[in-house]
Give the backbone structure.
Amino acid sequence: MKTKKASYTFTLVTLLFLLSLQTFAGGPLALLDTGQPFKWPNGGTNIPFNPDQGGLGPMTNAQAVAQTTQAFQTWGDIPTASTTYVNAGPLPVDVNINNFDPFLNPMAPDGLSAIVYDEHGEIFNFLFGANSGVLGFAGPEWVNLNTGDIVEGVGFMNGGALEGPNAFPVSEFLSVEVHEFGHYQNLAHTVVNGQVAGFGDNSGPTPNDTFPDPTGGFPGHIETMYPFLFEGGGQATPHKDDIGMISTLYPDPSFAASSATITGTIIAPNGTTPLTGVNVIARNVDDPFDDAVSSISSDLALDLTPGAPQVGVYTLRGVTPGAHYAIYVDEILAGGFSTPPLFPLPGPEEFYNGVNESNNGTTDDPAVFTTVSAGAGLTQSGINIIFNKLQPGPIPLRDDSSAELFPPFPIELCGQSFDSLFVNSNGNITFGQSDDFGFLESTTGFLHGPPRVAGLWDDLNPGTGGVVSFSQTATTFTVTFTNVPEFNTTDSNTFEIKFFKKLVGPVGNAFRLKYGHLDATDGLAGYSCGGRVTSGFEKETDLERFRLAPVAALVETAIFEQFTTDNDLDNKTISFLGTNEPRDPFEPNNTIARATHVNLPFDSSSRFTHTEIQPVGNDIDFYRFRAKAGEILVAETVPGNVNMDTLLGLFDEGGNLLAANDDGGGGFLSRIAVVVPADGEYVVGVTTFPDTGFTGAGGDFGRYVLTINTYTGTLLTTGDDGAAEVPLTSFKFPFNGTDWSSVFVNGNGNLTFGGADPDFSETVPEFLAGRPRIAPLWDDLTPDLGPTTRLGLVLAEERNKTLAIKFVSVPEFFSDTPNYFTITLKKQGEVNFDYGATARSDALVGLSPGGGAADPGPTDLSKANHLSAVGTTYELFPANVGVDLSFSNLRFKKNGDHDGDDHDHH
């Protein structure tokens, strides 16, 4: 039996109510396939649970087991569901802080469905921190990937939350367990009445309070599977929505005969695109709060690509036969959901309006509904809702908000064609998704986020002033920010982003950034092809120099400039002629026999070495190179598409697989590090999970950057925030008036003389006052946690009267982003920094004699010439800008030795 550990947990957190930290959606929690939720076998009969042996806060073990039994039986008492439950015996031990891990993280199914009572909350304090407010979590633990059966479940309950002066009421804890055991059976979160009660949402499509609040308010009217818990909300008793879902997953024969179903598709304002993540609520006009059900569009779809099965489809289950329902779309305001909620909605919330349903808000009044009903055992289908289209004019944006618009022509950016775009209040337009309210502009977000055109990405707030509007003709589409201030200021910023209809040919739409008066001195402007296309290592450009001639952006995956205090675009116009789809120049290389020959070191970061897996499920790339016995070979996929799940394979020249790696690199990216066994040719293959056979049948696609190199030298151990002293045996290194016979290699990305420096918090005052220092990347790096736990490699190699210190795939602390760089010290006093892939994060780069050196001010190292190895030179990179030195070389020479450019780009 093939089983898999379920990759989700479920938690509730006490705030005003309880918040789930994990992602659940209305309908089933997890799917084996489209339309096929995971379920307990045999119609949910005899679902097992194994209670703990200890107490739960003030409850004895007997009381805790009784409450758990009662919580399960609450679901068993639903007459239209077939579920039954059995106490399969206590756990073999009283689970506590010392022995809980095998129950939380079993290596294989163990025959137990553990319900753990963390008596005094020590486990929860360890997992979530003291006073986290997490009350419990539960859900399927192991599932059978062949049958779709749930094999085992798990639940942890926090007894510590029931103790002390701020104790959660024991009387309300039954609601927690009923909710969690709904997840245990693969029920997901649902939104019907809770959002009206807890967040001031309207009872109909916002802003319409179509239905008056229930008599006496909402106590007793909140659905069990709402992701927040209200004291007195009555959530220990399943409501109409909860009953409909449990009865759909585990139906008693009476369910079909006693209920009806309503289904339809949620459609974008363009009239064709099905939408995922829209909450749909149906209220019985005669009983609008107790007879109300909901569904999230695409909750039964595994592939969320528009046009895939079940995408955009919603299904309202368990409705009352013959009852008349008003059905409307409702934006989800808070909570976690496995079907990603669509936010913002592409138009105003609205009712289903029968024959008048359209994208025209004049004839399809959002506040008017046509009731829908269905007979017992029948399904009323085709109840489609089309969002109304926003008309040209002002766009209703507030602080950190977005609106989806539909231009009169498709917009093509870097070979990707889009029928809609998102206007984000923070001064930019994104494609495919909103910008997740990214008010802090950053180079990383710009390159790895969605495709974007930024007029002035900054923390702008049209909610307090100015106007954001759009206009269109048959050949143009224009978004204009007029006198929009930055957050918490009274300043004014005016600019427009205009797209032109595409001409015939491969080049995408031309577009223009036209600026009026700008008060903002910071921000980011330009375009990015987005995370599936960019390398992540693109460097910024001075946009102001393009003010006189259009930018030929045909082969560039991003052209942008980030300003800190030097925004110079006031009253300028920057025009872009259009973009092309990047091409992989190494194709065809989809077999070992056709592997592309490359020289080491190799990286595919530049615009001329664009490497990608495309199309999904039908591509693999192979690269052939030579290596020598005893060298350390490191091959790694680094950004590109940081979310792509790559697989790397290393083959000998005969095609035999020597090593493979899935997630050894950053996130889902991959890394192989091996000692070369013999001189010869080797091949690295790049594919995506789950293509473990390296045939090209992977499940992901997009841009990746591949780095391959071999290294020699002595392996150093620094530990976290440690150092290793390296003696100089063939020369002494002259640095700022002293000849040094050894150097201390600090794991945090710098060298010091005369002693080590464990400091991980780089600052300019420490740089000037501390030991003599050479810092290619002073940051909180962690090469290793000791000689047996290496997160990256640090190597030292002395030859030809030079010393090379090599940092190889070294991550930051608590991060998986790799950093590659080499520091070379030469007998004559020259210092070289050679960078490979380097994370865009905060860092300090440069050199200083220390000891209270004067501050000469920062230097822009990416543009500087004639760098001196004498005195102090540095640049401090803030986190939102990040280090821009990847694949660059810096040359620091002794004064008077400048014989050329001291800075090179790869």
The domain at 3-188 is CATH 3.40.390 (Collagenase (Catalytic Domain)). The chain is about 10% helix and 30% strand. The longest strand covers residues 134-144.
